Amino acid sequence: MLLERLERYEEAAEALEESLACARRLGDDYGEGIILSHLGNLHEHTDAPHAIACHERSLDVGVRLGSPLLRHTAHCNIGYARLTLGQPGLALRHFEECLAIVGAGDEGDWQSQSQSRIGLVRALRALGRGGAAVRECAIVLERAVSRADGFTEGLARHEHGLLLRAEGRTDEALDEWRRAYACLDGTDAKVLPELRALLGRAV
Predict the structure, then answer these.
(1) DSSP symbol at 87
(2) What angle is formed at CA 193 by the lines to CA 1 and CA 166, rounded to 5 degrees?
(3) Nearest in space to 137 (alpha carbons), one of 188, 170, 129
């Protein structure tokens, strides 16, 4: 993970492959599933199809072991990789499966649910299903605010701003993006460069 942070992706992949071989020698199936997930996340930087293949192998392990965590993580990661490839229809099915695993109500695991719901909003928006995207975005935003989860709130406000812009409500969109930036500034959120560009064009 340190090598990945340093963008030394080839060395990071070598270390993970060594870990994977070690897990297999030890018969550590769960560890194998976790390492495959990390490999998939690593390859998302450079090769989304390869990343999906790793996540699918991790999903197979999760199904075999009956692990909700491995299954959810794999579906969520595959969904985001499908979005990267411009395949929102395929992504949508994975995010829906995520919510079926972790629970869609207030009682569900919030961290897993929030990741899934943000992905779901992005997939619906990309598919042109604005009404459904707005409804899902309102759910995740309300729950993030109630939990004082500023990071998820920022991601939701960014998405809400994009949905408002699609409706021609530019001033409201800019307000949401400003609030999103205030939530996410100083974090490692991947949407920050886009937010800066959106706000920069308005200044």
Answers:
(1) -
(2) 125
(3) 129
The architecture of the domain spanning 1-85 is: Alpha Horseshoe (1.25)
Tell me the CA end-to-end span of the chain in Å, nearest whole number: 37
Nearest-angstrom CA–CA distance, 187 and 78: 24
What's at 174, amino acid-wise?
Answer: L
- Residue whose token pair is 């309102």: 138
**39 touches 3 (CB < 8 A):** no
Nearest to 67 by CA among 90, 22, 36, 25: 36
Q: What percent of the chain has pLDDT over 90?
A: 89
The reply to whether domains 1-85 and 104-203 share a CATH topology is yes
pTM above 0.85, yes or no: yes
CATH class of the domain defined by 104-203: mainly alpha
Taking alpha carbons only, the member of 33, 57, 35, 53 closest to residue 44 is 53
Domain residue spans of the chain: 1-85, 104-203
CA distance 102 to 100: 6
Q: How many CB atoms lie within 10 A of CB 198?
A: 21
Neighbours of 146 (CB within 10 A): 11
The string of pLDDT tens digits covering residues 67-96 is: 999 999 999 999 999 999 999 999 999 999
Query: What gap in Å lies between CA 94 and CA 87, rounded to an integer?
Result: 11
Dihedral of the alpha carbons of 133, 134, 138, 140, in degrees to the nearest 10: 20
